[in-house]
């Protein structure tokens, strides 16, 4: 029985490759905590998560001071037991992003270690439903971009075989959103999906009016139309909206997802492994959603989510937003608009450790061993 002997912590700050803006914020930084777990056989597993520019230091202190020391000497194969123990230990600070981001980095590292030792790719170990999934792109749909740029990007993606494009909405004047979506639909035709994302930027009345105004364009969904904790608002909107409602990137608990599903408050679930607390709870949400015939279209983290979407029966799309190119040796394989799950043992991310070591923030790099 191999036990955890060493944990290495690091964080790198990655600048987005393009300017990213939505209805409530701009993204200028992506803090990426990294956790590498080594067991008594010398096997290693690396996990990660992310912030959108704030909270990284708090995540690293939580990992170093409270979570990782509890792992030393534990049986690394007991992934489920470890996740539940750590979640319970942090119950005073859950449910919330800081704790979930920290748990995600640990849990993903444990899954990477487990898969490597078993000689299996994550998508096979976690279910093995298929080896690839269709992509839609978000990188060309940010709110600040002019309509001409949005159309050009979508046409390029369509030519490459992508399933659709996601466009940020929430312009001050409703007619601006309508004009942008109308121009895009005219350019791409009826066979290409258009997703929209409000990033929690609407009040209840605004969300319903915007959904009705955009209804003629046959949209795949309206994402995060309301604050994520407004359950009653989502129930009412989902019943009245002519467009399917998608939620998930700002939900941090499997129980919250279960309530959304049970109350018919959404039609698409976008659970994010980096925000729900890792692969272990991600799979629980996906299987729960299957019981309600709700598809899984995860938010962000395409390099990890491709394997999870391919693991489960109700995985529908991978969201194309390149994230890790600067710290990996090989990127996500996309052919004909489909993302292919890596078949190498582990979570399938080929880390460039020279690049990582050159970017780490020394203050938050540490090694945890027995007695340290």
In short:
With about 375 residues, this protein is of the alpha/beta class.
Task: Characterize the structure shown.
Pfam families: MR_MLE_C (PF13378), MR_MLE_N (PF02746). Its cofactor is Mg(2+). InterPro entries: Enolase-like_C_sf, Enolase-like_N, Enolase_C-like, Mandel_Rmase/mucon_lact_enz_CS, Mandelate_racemase_C, Mandelate_racemase_N_dom, RHMD-like. This protein is 38% helix and 18% strand. With 372 residues, the chain is of the alpha/beta class. The strands form 3 sheets. Strands 6, 7, 8, 9, 10, 11, 12, 13 and 14 form a 9-stranded mixed β-sheet that branches. It has helices at residues 56-67, 79-89, 97-118, 122-125, 147-159, 174-188, 204-214, 231-240, 254-262, 273-276, 279-291, 302-311, 353-359; strands at 4-14, 20-21, 26-27, 30-39, 44-48, 132-137, 164-168, 193-197, 221-223, 245-247, 268-269, 318-320, 333-335, 338-340, 366-369. The protein has 13 helices and 15 strands. The chain has 2 domains: 4-119 and 353-369, Enolase-like, N-terminal domain (Enolase-like, domain 1, 2-Layer Sandwich); 123-340, Alpha-Beta Barrel (TIM Barrel), CATH 3.20.20.120.
Helices, strands, pairings?
Blueprint: E1 4-14, E2 20-21, E3 26-27, E4 30-39, E5 44-48, H1 56-67, H2 79-89, H3 97-118, H4 122-125, E6 132-137, H5 147-159, E7 164-168, H6 174-188, E8 193-197, H7 204-214, E9 221-223, H8 231-240, E10 245-247, H9 254-262, E11 268-269, H10 273-276, H11 279-291, H12 302-311, E12 318-320, E13 333-335, E14 338-340, H13 353-359, E15 366-369
Parallel strand pairs: 6-7, 6-12, 7-8, 8-9, 9-10, 10-11
Antiparallel strand pairs: 1-4, 1-15, 2-3, 4-5, 6-14, 13-14
């Amino acid at each position: 029985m191999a036990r955890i002997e060493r944990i290495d912590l690091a964080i790198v700050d990655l600048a987005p490759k393009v300017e990213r803006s939505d209805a409530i914020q701009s993204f200028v930084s992506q803090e990426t905590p990294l956790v590498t777990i080594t067991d008594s056989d010398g096997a290693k597993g690396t996990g990660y998560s992310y912030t959108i520019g704030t909270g990284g230091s708090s995540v690293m202190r939580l990992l170093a001071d409270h979570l990782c020391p509890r792992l030393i000497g534990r049986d690394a194969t007991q992934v489920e037991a470890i996740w539940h123990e750590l979640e319970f230990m942090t119950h005073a600070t859950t449910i919330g992003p800081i704790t979930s981001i920290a748990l995600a980095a640990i849990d993903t590292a444990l899954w990477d270690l487990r898969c490597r030792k078993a000689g299996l790719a994550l998508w096979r170990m976690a279910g093995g439903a298929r080896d690839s999934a269709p992509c839609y792109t978000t990188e060309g749909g940010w709110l600040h971009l002019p309509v001409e740029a949005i159309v050009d990007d979508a046409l390029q993606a369509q030519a490459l075989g992508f399933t659709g494009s996601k466009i940020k909405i929430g312009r001050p004047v409703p007619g601006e959103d309508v004009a942008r979506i109308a121009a895009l639909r005219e350019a791409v035709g009826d066979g290409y999906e258009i997703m929209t994302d409000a990033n929690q930027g609407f009040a209840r009345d605004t969300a319903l009016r915007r959904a009705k105004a955009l209804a003629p364009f046959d949209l795949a969904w309206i994402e995060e139309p309301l604050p994520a904790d407004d359950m009653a608002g989502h129930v009412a909107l989902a019943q009245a909206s002519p467009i399917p409602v998608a939620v998930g990137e700002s939900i941090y608990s499997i129980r919250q997802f279960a309530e959304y599903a049970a109350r018919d408050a959404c039609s698409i679930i976008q659970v994010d492994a980096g925000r729900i607390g890792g692969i272990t709870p991600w799979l629980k949400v996906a299987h729960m959603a299957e019981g309600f015939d709700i598809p899984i279209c995860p938010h962000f983290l395409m390099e990890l989510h491709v394997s999870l979407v391919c693991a489960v029966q109700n995985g529908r799309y991978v969201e194309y937003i390149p994230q890790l190119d600067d710290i990996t040796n090989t990127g996500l394989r996309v052919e004909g608009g489909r993302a292919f799950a890596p078949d190498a043992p582990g979570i399938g991310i080929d880390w460039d450790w020279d690049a990582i070591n050159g970017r780490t923030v020394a203050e938050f790099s540490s090694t945890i061993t027995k007695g340290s």
